[in-house]
Design brief:
44% helix; 11% strand; alpha+beta; 5 helices
Length: 148
């Protein structure tokens, strides 16, 4: 998608990174932003989520010699779902997601991409039916996933 045709150029991007170690989350966010810039995409913002180690819910967390539970929660800690950090309780994450959603919505409504060009100017006419079809399929998949 990148070479010769630069099909990602001008696309708006929001990065979402989750992790336990904030220095790693920050580094991953920076690395993703750098890759997006190389694709000539515009990073509108970043969402950083305080996450969990899979050891908390894998079923072997406190018994496994590779477990991250003791290093995060102390020696003798027993892994359980109750120790998980819930993203639903991270108000700053939801606030930032809502803010970035509004920014993206406004930019799209104004017909802008990251390059400040009209969205229509960057879309070849023969691609529009395919894009509409893809949007419809995505919407149907989303609705069926919500019903489950």
């Amino acid at each position: 998608m990148r070479h010769v045709h630069a099909l990602n150029q001008g696309k708006l991007v929001v990065t979402v990174v989750t992790g336990v170690a904030w220095h790693a989350v920050n580094q991953a966010t920076d690395m993703i932003a750098q890759e997006m810039a190389m694709e000539r995409m515009e990073v509108v913002g970043n969402i950083k989520i305080n996450g969990n180690v899979p050891c908390l819910t894998c079923g072997h967390g406190h018994e496994c010699k590779m477990s991250g539970v003791p290093s995060l929660h102390g020696k003798g800690a027993t892994a359980s779902a109750e120790m998980c950090v819930a993203v639903e309780e991270q108000a700053e994450v939801w606030d930032e997601a809502q803010r970035l959603g509004q920014v993206l919505g406004e930019r799209v409504r104004n017909g802008e991409l990251g390059t400040k060009k009209s969205m229509r100017a960057n879309i070849r006419p023969w691609r529009i039916p395919h894009m509409i079809s893809l949007m419809i399929r995505t919407r149907r998949w989303t609705m069926s996933a919500r019903r489950k």
